[in-house]
Design goal:
This protein is mostly beta strands. The protein has two helices and eight strands. The mean pLDDT is about 95.
C-alpha cells in the first residue's frame, strides 16, 4: 500500500468554506481569504512526496485522503492524472474540477473544504489543534 502521512495544525482564520478546493499548506500563517485551507504548518508539501507515490498519482490512481483530528475522521476521494505536475514546495490542493497547476495533488474530488465535517473545521480554528492527513493510493 502506498501511503504518505502529513501532520499540520489549525489556525484562527480557518474557514474551510471553499466550494471546489481543499488545501493543506506548509505556510505558517493564514489570512481570512484562504477559505480553502484546512490546516497550516504541514510537515510536507507535494514536492516532499515519494517518487513512487507521485508516479501512482500520474498513473491516474484513486486517492483516499483521510483527515484525522482527535477521534474525528473525515475522508475525501479524488483521482490522479497524467497531467499532474506534483512539484510545489509548500501546498497541496485537492480539486473537484479537473484544473491542474503545480499545487494540485488530485482532481475530481468528491468533497471540497466546505464539505469537510464541521466539527473538524471548528477544532482546526485553534492553533493548538493538530491534524493527521493520510494520503492512500487505492488500487
Amino acid at each position: 500500500m502506498l501511503r504518505e502521512v502529513i501532520h499540520c495544525r489549525g489556525h484562527e482564520n480557518v474557514r474551510a468554506t471553499h466550494k471546489s478546493t481543499l488545501e493543506f499548506t506548509k505556510e505558517d500563517y493564514l489570512t481570512p481569504r484562504g477559505d480553502c485551507i484546512l490546516c497550516i504548518g504541514a510537515d510536507k508539501g507535494i514536492d516532499d512526496l515519494s517518487d513512487e507515490f507521485k508516479a501512482a498519482l500520474r498513473a491516474g490512481k484513486k486517492l483516499l485522503i483521510r483527515i484525522k483530528v482527535g477521534e474525528l475522521v473525515d475522508e475525501v476521494l479524488a483521482e490522479g492524472s497524467p497531467g499532474l505536475v506534483l512539484d510545489h514546495p509548500c501546498s497541496m490542493v485537492v480539486r473537484k474540477s479537473e484544473y491542474i497547476d503545480a499545487r494540485t495533488l488530485a482532481i475530481r474530488a468528491n468533497k471540497a473544504a466546505r464539505d469537510i465535517d464541521r466539527k473538524i473545521v471548528e477544532l482546526l480554528k485553534s492553533p493548538r489543534t493538530t491534524a493527521e492527513v493520510e494520503l492512500i493510493i487505492l488500487d
